[in-house]
Amino acid sequence: MTTNISECINAILVKERELPLDPASDTMYTVLDGDKNGVVDLQARTCSCRRFQLEQLPCAHAMIVIWHSKGDVYDFYSEYYNSSTWKATYAGVVYPLPHQGDWVIPNEVRDVKVLPLDI
Question: What is the reported pTM?
Answer without folding.
Answer: 0.64
